[in-house]
From TrEMBL:
<feature type="region of interest" description="Disordered">
    <location>
        <begin position="1"/>
        <end position="22"/>
    </location>
</feature>
<dbReference type="Pfam" id="PF01814">
    <property type="entry name" value="Hemerythrin"/>
</dbReference>
<protein>
    <submittedName>
        <fullName>Putative hemerythrin HHE cation binding domain protein</fullName>
    </submittedName>
</protein>
<dbReference type="GO" id="GO:0005886">
    <property type="term" value="C:plasma membrane"/>
</dbReference>
<dbReference type="InterPro" id="IPR012312">
    <property type="entry name" value="Hemerythrin-like"/>
</dbReference>
<feature type="domain" description="Hemerythrin-like">
    <location>
        <begin position="23"/>
        <end position="155"/>
    </location>
</feature>
Length: 209
C-alpha cells in the first residue's frame, strides 16, 4: 500500500506563482489523485473478499487508459517535454528521461490491470481477483510516487525554465488535450467521473459493512 505520509518529506510546491502550464498539469494530478484514492478503496474491498461491480472496474480501466496515459501523459510527453528540451534540457540523464521511463512502466502495469479486470468479469475467480489487487497496488504506488516527483521537481524546473514562454507552451499542451479528450469539456467529464468513482466506492464500502 502506498505511504500516505511521504508528502511531508518533500517541499510543498508553490501554488500562487505556478505558471499556466504547470497549473493545468497540477489540476490533472488532483483528478488523478482522486482516482488513486478510489482505487485504494477498491483494493481494500477486494482484499476483504467483496465484489466490485464490473462497471466500476471498467471505469477504472477507462480512466487509467484514456485520461492518465492517453491524455495527461501525452500533454507532458508531447507538449511540455519538447518545450523543456528547446531550452537546452537533455532528454537523457535528466528528469525528462526518468519521467518517460516511468510512463512506460505505468503503461505495462495498466495493461496487466486491464487483462486482470477482463478475466475477472468473465470468471470471477480468486486468481483474477488477486491479480487485480496486485497490479492495482503496483499502479497506485507507482503513480503516487511519479506525481510527487513531478509536483516537487519537474514542475519547479518547468516554472523556472519556461518563464515568459508559458502562453506558447500552454497552447501546445491544450492542443494535445483537445486531440486526446476533446479539450476542457472532456477533461471536466473525467473530473466528474473521478468524483463519481470515489463516492461510489465509498458507498460500496459503507454498504458492505
Ligand atoms: Fe503528470
Amino acid at each position: 500500500m502506498r505511504k500516505k505520509d511521504t508528502m511531508s518529506f518533500f517541499p510543498q510546491p508553490p501554488s500562487s506563482t505556478a505558471g499556466q502550464v504547470t497549473a493545468s498539469l497540477r489540476q490533472d494530478h488532483d483528478i488523478i489523485k482522486k482516482v488513486l484514492k478510489a482505487t485504494d478503496a477498491c483494493i481494500k474491498l477486494l482484499k476483504e473478499g467483496k465484489e466490485i461491480p464490473p462497471a466500476i472496474l471498467l471505469d477504472t480501466v477507462d480512466f487509467i487508459t484514456n485520461f492518465i496515459d492517453r491524455c495527461h501523459h501525452a500533454k507532458e510527453e508531447q507538449g511540455l517535454f519538447p518545450a523543456l528540451e528547446a531550452t537546452g534540457m537533455p532528454r537523457e540523464n535528466s528528469v525528462i528521461g526518468t519521467m518517460l521511463r516511468e510512463y512506460e512502466e505505468a503503461r505495462k502495469i495498466a495493461e496487466h490491470i486491464k487483462n486482470a479486470v477482463e478475466s475477472h468479469i468473465q470468471d470471477k475467480s480468486e486468481e483474477s481477483r488477486s491479480k487485480i489487487i496486485q497490479y492495482c497496488e503496483a499502479y497506485v504506488n507507482h503513480i503516487d510516487r511519479h506525481i510527487l516527483k513531478e509536483d516537487t521537481r519537474l514542475f519547479i524546473i518547468t516554472e523556472r525554465r519556461l518563464k515568459g514562454k508559458e502562453n506558447d507552451v500552454k497552447k501546445m499542451v491544450d492542443s494535445v488535450e483537445i486531440e486526446k479528450v476533446g479539450g476542457a469539456e472532456g477533461r471536466k467529464q473525467y473530473e466528474e467521473n473521478a468524483d463519481r468513482f470515489l463516492s461510489s466506492v465509498r458507498q460500496l464500502g459503507s454498504s458492505n459493512n
